[in-house]
Design a protein that fits this description.
By secondary structure, the protein is of the alpha+beta class. It has 2 domains: about 70 residues, Ubiquitin-like (UB roll) (Roll); about 60 residues, 434 Repressor (Amino-terminal Domain) (Orthogonal Bundle). It has 6 helices and 4 strands; from the N terminus they run ββββαααααα.
Length: about 150
């Protein structure tokens, strides 16, 4: 499958048809059944994605998997970080996770594990935990950082 914007198949020259069908989409070692939109050649069966289609399908599958596994969604993680008024890097330092981890969680390209998901929920529910982690890891929390907002349990 290629990411390309064409009306004709680059393999055989057939006229591409837009397709939307429910099918299993893999995200790492997980998978979810979602509505996948792409183009298919009726002559040779080559499948192609226009720019953005593959990313949209992967985000959709990622969200379904997170919901099925009871994990926070990327937007929920971003909201928590923003409520704490922390940059992605500062949030990584606060949680003790590696560089670019929060970026990947917020993009939906990497799943947080259950232990980290639980930690995120504890930080969201109990502002004192965020302050404690800040002191522990040398991360200054802004004075007016929100916290304690209700989160999915």
């Amino acid at each position: 499958m290629h990411a390309i914007e064409l009306d004709t198949c680059p393999i055989c020259g057939g006229r591409l048809e837009r397709v939307a069908e429910r099918r299993e989409v893999r995200v790492g070692n997980r998978s979810a059944r979602v509505l996948d939109e792409f183009s298919r050649c009726p002559v040779c069966a080559e499948e192609l994605y226009s720019p953005g289609q593959m990313d949209a399908t992967l985000r959709l599958a990622s969200d379904v998997i997170r919901k099925d596994e009871g994990l926070l969604l990327p937007d929920e993680i971003r909201s928590l970080r923003e409520e704490l008024r922390l940059s992605q890097r500062a949030f990584e330092e606060l949680l003790g996770v590696g560089p670019k981890t929060v970026v990947r969680w917020e993009k939906g390209s990497v799943f947080q594990n259950r232990a980290t998901d639980s930690l995120l929920r504890v930080v969201a529910r109990f502002p004192a935990v965020a302050r404690f982690l800040g002191e522990l890891h040398g991360v200054e929390l802004p004075k007016h950082a929100a916290g304690g907002a209700a989160r999915r349990s």
